[in-house]
Structure formats: structure tokens, C-alpha cells
């Protein structure tokens, strides 16, 4: 995004190049609703009661409570376990946050405690997010897909239900395509299967750095406070707290170069699938409907009064939809 379009988002003090911008695809399109750093304090008081302590039977590098790292192709990938052992007989749910987000800023206020009441939950921070560091070279969706599969292998999880927001939804779709045996179901929140699945102006923002967001688009975008909190979370948790700008640039390049998935790949998905978007999301309703049409048996949910930023707070609506779908297919 151009310097003009960046006017509502903080530029790191270390940045001197005008070419740096938070990506439409990661900061603008992949970003999620956010909770302030005080969420850490609330989490210790409430969310941690859902955490799983270190369990006998699977390897885990213990940090705080039920958190750990899985080393996949040389990168230590951070995860948290909530609601019981992921290999205890119940199918776990894997939660994947949106781009530039982390467990603290996207999942801990609603989705983790809600889902962990009734099933094991595995929350994963992908490459360059939260506690998980970056690799040399570019970031790709395919690499994040393989990393996620590697975390599940590390934990001994054979199959899981996936809920992914934005970038996390793209990772979940990739898993359904490339690792079908590991995926029982997928619920995507504000995801898409190609760049053109987003609102036309967001596509333009991604491709034209000189474009300034319209008055209609600005209310849907992450705020300056959102970006500041994302960066602060990164500074507190990332292995290299100074790498924020580099990660943002990589994620922006990733989306710009991403080719999406073909209709044939989507038709080949066999997982139970729920396409969920807000009625004021970054994803076009027409594109979401096409996703649901192409993926065999997929269902579409358009949530009223919901944006790309607050869809992760709609767990009270999403949970019964997911449970009803799983129960229907099981019957």
C-alpha cells in the first residue's frame, strides 16, 4: 500500500524507504480484528484455564502452560494446546489466525475459549507471526501449509477440523488440497481462492501503490491502532523483534505473486467445508458463493452486520453451524 494509503497505519520508526507499506493482502486483507496488549493480562486470568499441561505420550517443548514449539524444516513453529490432549480420542480443532496476527491478538478472546469447552484446540502461529520466527527467502502459502502439517505430525494428530481466518483460511484450504487425510473439515472466515476474490478496490490497492482508499473502504480496513497493536505484539514475542518490516514486505510480496487455486483443485476437496464471510467483508459475496459451488458439498454462510475485522468475534454464530455440519455428515 502506498504512503498515502498508509496514512492510517503506523510506519516503523526504522523505516526510511517510501516503498515500505503494510500489505493489502496481509495487513489490509489478511489482518483480523484485534485486542489490545491488555489481552495478555485477561488471558492469564481466564483463557489459561483451558490450557492443557504437558501430556505424556507426545513430544512438547514446554513454555507457558500448554504451549510449545515444533521444529519443521529448521523453523521452530509455536503452538498452543487448549481443552485437552489433541490425541485423546476426540478430533481436535486447529485455529489459524489471519495475516500479521497472532494467537493473542486474534483467537484468545472468543474462538479459543468457546471451542475449547467441547473439544481439544490447537492454535498455531505460522512463519513470521507471533512467537514463530521467519526463514530466509520468500514466504509462500505452500510453505505455511507444509509447516502446519508438520506441527500436526509433531503432535501425533492424524486428522483435525480447521478454522482459519483470512490468511489462516488460505492455509486451511491448502491443507485440504495437499493433505486431505489430515483434514476432516474446514471453516474459512473471510478467505478467498484468488486475489480477484477480494473487493475490486482491495485488489487495486494491492497492485497499485499510488491508490488511496476510498471513503467507503476505509471503515472496513484495520485502523492505525490495529497496526500498532500487531507490531507491539510482534515486538514482544518474535525471536527477532526488529524483523517486523521485513516480514510485512515478504507477506505483501507473497500475495502479489500468489496464483490462487484452480477450479479443478477446489473440486477435488473432500473435506466437509463451510465458507463463512461477513456481509461487509473483504471477500466478495459472489466469490464466496462460487467457492461453495466448486467445493463439493460446501455450505455458505454470510453473517449479517459482520466485517473482515470482527468475524473472529462471531463464535456464538459459528460454533453451532460447524457442529451442525459435523453432526449432519456423521449421521
What is the fold's blueprint, element by element?
Elements (H helix, E strand, L loop, with lengths): L23 H5 L10 H7 L21 E6 L2 E8 L10 E4 L6 H4 L4 H5 L5 E5 L15 H15 L4 E6 L1 H12 L4 E7 L10 H8 L16 H14 L6 H14 L5 H5 L4 E9 L4 H10 L4 E9 L7 H16 L1
Parallel strand pairs: 3-4, 3-5, 5-6, 6-7, 7-8
Antiparallel strand pairs: 1-2, 2-4
Helix pairs in contact: 5-6
What does this structure look like?
The chain is an alpha/beta fold. The protein has one domain (about 5-330): 3-Layer(aba) Sandwich (Rossmann fold), CATH 3.40.50. About 35% of the residues lie in helices and about 15% in strands. An eight-stranded mixed sheet has the order 1-2-4-3-5-6-7-8, sandwiched between helices. Helix 11 links the parallel strand 7 (about 270-280) and strand 8. InterPro entries: AB_hydrolase, AB_hydrolase_1, AB_hydrolase_fold. GO terms for molecular function: hydrolase activity.
Key features of this structure:
AB_hydrolase_fold, AB_hydrolase_1, 331 residues, hydrolase, Alpha/beta hydrolase, Rossmann fold, alpha/beta, 16% strand
Amino acid at each position: 500500500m502506498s504512503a498515502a494509503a498508509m496514512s492510517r497505519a503506523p510506519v516503523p520508526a526504522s523505516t526510511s524507504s517510501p516503498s515500505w507499506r503494510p500489505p493489502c493482502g496481509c495487513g489490509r486483507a489478511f489482518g483480523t480484528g484485534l485486542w489490545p496488549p491488555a489481552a495478555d493480562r485477561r488471558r492469564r486470568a481466564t483463557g489459561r484455564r483451558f490450557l492443557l499441561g504437558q501430556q505424556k505420550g507426545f513430544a512438547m517443548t514446554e513454555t507457558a502452560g500448554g504451549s510449545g514449539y515444533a521444529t519443521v524444516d529448521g523453523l521452530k513453529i509455536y503452538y498452543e494446546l487448549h481443552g485437552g490432549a489433541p490425541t485423546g480420542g476426540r478430533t481436535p480443532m486447529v485455529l489459524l489466525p489471519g495475516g500479521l496476527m497472532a494467537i493473542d491478538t486474534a483467537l484468545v478472546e472468543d474462538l479459543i475459549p468457546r471451542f475449547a469447552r467441547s473439544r481439544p484446540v490447537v492454535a498455531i502461529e505460522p512463519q513470521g507471526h507471533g512467537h514463530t520466527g521467519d526463514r530466509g527467502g520468500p514466504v509462500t502459502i505452500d510453505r505455511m501449509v507444509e509447516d502446519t502439517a508438520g506441527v500436526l505430525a509433531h503432535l501425533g494428530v492424524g486428522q483435525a477440523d480447521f478454522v482459519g481466518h483470512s490468511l489462516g483460511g488460505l492455509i486451511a484450504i491448502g491443507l485440504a488440497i495437499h493433505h486431505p487425510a489430515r483434514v476432516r473439515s474446514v471453516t474459512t472466515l473471510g478467505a478467498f481462492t484468488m486475489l480477484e476474490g477480494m473487493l475490486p478496490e482491495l485488489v487495486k490497492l494491492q497492485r497499485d501503490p499510488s491508490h488511496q482508499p476510498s471513503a467507503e473502504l476505509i471503515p472496513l480496513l484495520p485502523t492505525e491502532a490495529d497496526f500498532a497493536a500487531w507490531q507491539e505484539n510482534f515486538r514482544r514475542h518474535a525471536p527477532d523483534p526488529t524483523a517486523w518490516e521485513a516480514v510485512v514486505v515478504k507477506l505483501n510480496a507473497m500475495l502479489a505473486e500468489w496464483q490462487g487455486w484452480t477450479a479443478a483443485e477446489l473440486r477435488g476437496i473432500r473435506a466437509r467445508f463451510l465458507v463463512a464471510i461477513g456481509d461487509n467483508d473483504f471477500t466478495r459475496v459472489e466469490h464466496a458463493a462460487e467457492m461453495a459451488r466448486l467445493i463439493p458439498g460446501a455450505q455458505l454462510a454470510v453473517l449479517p452486520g459482520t466485517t473482515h475485522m470482527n468475524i473472529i468475534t462471531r463464535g456464538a454464530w459459528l460454533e453451532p453451524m460447524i457442529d451442525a455440519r459435523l453432526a449432519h455428515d456423521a449421521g
